[in-house]
Each structure stands twice: as structure tokens, then as C-alpha cells.
Amino acid sequence: MNKLLAATAALALLSAPQIASATNAPQTVNISVSADGLDLSRADDMRKLRNRIADAAAEACDPADRMIVTPLPDYQCRRAAVANAEPLVQELAQNARRSTMARRR
Q: The domain containing residue 55 runs over which residues?
């Protein structure tokens, strides 16, 4: 089941502000977050996955190569990106718990 979870773990559709354009429309950024090595039926591994997602959101929202418009990290973007990924995280965790329960029978 871990292999299935790892295969389906392209998790986060992250939204980052568009800097270069004159418009204020958001830019959509896709970043894959791996669940390799994690058992998503365990709370500790779920925490690790959420940390990976938070790190990816920080990278997408505050890339090191962008021109700094403001010196502060874009926390609003980060929160939105993590929130966008959460339904899939919940679904993966639920599937992992179901699989674990089925194996115990």
C-alpha cells in the first residue's frame, strides 16, 4: 500500500502571487510532495507529510530567485497552499487507515 500512496502522492496544487505581471492575478504553481517512506496510517508520519507540504509551500510562495518586493515571507500564500493540499492529505490518510484495517482482518 505504501507504494500506491507514494505513487499517488503528487499532493499540492500551490498558489503563489504573480510578481512579474502588472495584473494582480495569482499564478498557479504545481509542486509534487513525496510520501515515500511514510505510513500515512500513523500520526507521526502524517505530521512529516504535512511538514513536507509546508516546506513546499514556502518554496513556492517565497522562491529564492524572485525579486524581493517585500522582505517578509508571504504567509497568506503559504496558508492557502497548505489548505489546498489538505483535502488530498485527508483522503490519502483515510485510504491508508482503511488498508491497514483490511490487512488486520
A: 2-104
- Beta-carbon contacts of 70 under 8 Å, excluding residues fewer than 6 positions away, are none
- Domains contained in the chain, number: 1
The span from the first CA to the last CA of the chain, in angstroms, equals: 16
Model's pTM, two decimal places?
Answer: 0.69
Is pLDDT above 70 for 28? yes
Q: What is the pLDDT of residues 64-82, one digit of tens each?
A: 666 666 567 888 989 999 9
Query: Are residues 3 and 45 in contact, defined by beta-carbon separation less than 8 angstroms?
Result: no
Q: DSSP characters for 16-84?
A: E---SSSS-PPEEEEE-B--TT--TTSHHHHHHHHHHHHHHHHHHHS-TTS--SSSS--HHHHHHHHHH
Helix axes 43-61 and 75-104, enclosed angle (nearest 10): 150
